[in-house]
Design brief:
Structural class: mainly beta
Distance between the termini: 67 Å
Oligomer: single chain
Strand order of the largest sheet: 1-3-6-5
CATH superfamily: RNA polymerase II/Efflux pump adaptor protein, barrel-sandwich hybrid domain
Largest sheet: 4 strands, antiparallel
CATH topology: OB fold (Dihydrolipoamide Acetyltransferase, E2P)
Length: 81
Amino acid sequence: MAHTKAQKTVKGNRDSKSKRLGVKLYGGQAAEAGNIIIRQKGTKVNAGPGTMLGRDFTIMALKKGTVKFYTKLGNTYVRID
């Protein structure tokens, strides 16, 4: 026979595509305005001076400079110096 006996057997064999989350520019690296620094789900890292938090929690550089990570009151931030 050229068909499957039980229908919908393929339904459980699919997997979602990976979203390529994570840090794209690390501390000390140069950033241009508009560069993506971090892709994340939720605010694991917060946006500091010179950066912007996007609608999907992506942190982007607003100006040219060097990426710096720091912690303040237990929260991690990224800034552009």
